[in-house]
Amino acid sequence: MKKKLLVTNDILLGGGGVEKLMYDLVWAWHEKYDITIMTFDYDKRFYEYYPKDVKYLSLSKGIIKPNAERGFWFWIRKPYRAIVELMVNAMRFDVLLCMKDGWPLWRGVRYKIPVKFAWHHTDYNNYHSSNYIFGNEENEVKAMQQYDNIICVAQNVKKGICDVIGDPGNLVVKYNPINVDIVLKKSKEQVTDIESMKLPEKDRPVRFVSVGRLNMQKGYTLLIEAAKKLEDEGYKFEIIVVGAKEKWGDEYEKIQIALKETGVKSCKFIGGRSNPYKYMAIADWFISSSIFEGYSLVSQEAAILDIPMLLTDCSGVRELLGDSEYGIVMPIDVDGIYNNMRRVLENPELRSYYKNKISERKEIIDFYKRAAEIEKLFS
């Protein structure tokens, strides 16, 4: 009989690294295990993306206009919480795979499932905001200890937990699997909605591409300010940002204000796209202005595509780029981004140099090896 796996997350499809990780693991394992995915937000598109033999549950189906932020208030209500717990426990799952720290980890503690694992994607030395969920650091450590392992996506994520809240004693580091074949296949699709692509190649500006949801974490206002300084100095370039507005938070509005106040022309926010890889494939440079990360999936996807990179110095970046050996590591501030963008604009030979270097590095991104290492934890 197949083991029954419950895979949980807040949302199903959001274009972020957590959702990509869940998608790739489920597709890798769905024939081997009896898998059920449970999200808070209901998404009617489930079977457009996931295999037919995977079951889908949503905690908020039937709630008018559900979203994660509002949904948490429904979750906290004890009668509702008790019903969900009874439902999950009655289904007798063998393994819980909680895809995210924070609320999903908190909820998973209450499920009577014999084997439990939870992913942790946040470097607490750069960003820690979960006290409002757990109450204090001690309670968060106790919650983590209810799991067989907390799977940290980078060494700095593990260190951050130990430094900020203490070591729960069950931390392991496992790098996220990335489906290389899918990335390569989708990258070959033609781009038709970027105006500069219509120009003769010699007239095209240097193109930086960034991919990520429009939230505070991604540091897009820093990127806008750096771009404005470069524009004012007469550099010819463009920045294409592929990423959707989040349903919660006000970062989208802050980005719009920054664009208006600076009058910057080089930054083009084109919204979310179902296939970001084709935009990455047309980049001269992949750029990330993130303030904090776990271990960015999209930067590893850029490595798969041999795209030279400029990445702010977040968790996981040096595990991929070394000390600027395989790509350029930037300080997390406007001047750091500005100085390094200016450096590559003034030295175009750096593009081919770092393109060759990152090509050497992509051999560490082995989907099947990484997935197998995670599977060994519960198989």
UniProtKB/TrEMBL annotation:
Domain Glycosyltransferase subfamily 4-like N-terminal: 16-181
Pfam families (alphabetical): Glyco_transf_4 (PF13439), Glycos_transf_1 (PF00534)
Gene3D superfamilies in the record: Glycogen Phosphorylase B (3.40.50.2000)
Keyword Glycosyltransferase annotated: no
UniProt entry tagged with the keyword Membrane: no
Keywords: Transferase
The protein's name: Glycosyltransferase involved in cell wall bisynthesis
